[in-house]
From TrEMBL:
Protein name per the record: DUF485 domain-containing protein
Coiled coil regions, renumbered to chain: none
One cellular-component annotation, GO: plasma membrane
Sequence intervals crossing the membrane: 25-46, 58-82
Sorted UniProt keywords: Membrane, Transmembrane, Transmembrane helix
Protein's organism: Ottowia oryzae
């Protein structure tokens, strides 16, 4: 038992374009996040001296702002994905559903 509407949607070139675009964008952000996160972990593992350098005369080291940068980067790419999903991807989905239910 297969639903003809589902089959129509799956054959729709707009749907195929949506899934390709969304998957490519998701994987790109995932790879960027992995590079940033594992780059930071790599610095911790292989260059502790760099991260231990103090900033100014205080006790804060270079590792603290870099670690905060990793967190901020995560929030930014999440926001980027949500923004694109809520605008471009949702609009494409509505258009595909409208065409499929005609």
């Amino acid at each position: 038992m297969s639903d003809p509407v589902v089959e129509r949607i799956q054959r729709d070139p707009k749907y195929q374009q949506l899934t390709r675009t969304r998957n490519r964008f998701g994987w790109t952000l995932t790879i960027l996040m992995l590079i940033v996160y594992y780059g930071y972990i790599g610095l911790i593992a292989f260059d502790k001296e760099l991260l231990a350098k103090p900033l100014g005369a205080g006790v804060t080291t270079l590792g603290i702002p870099i670690g905060l940068g990793v967190i901020v980067f995560t929030v930014l790419i999440t926001g980027l994905y949500v923004r694109r999903a809520n605008t471009e991807f949702d609009a494409m989905t509505r258009e595909i559903l409208k065409d499929a239910t005609k």
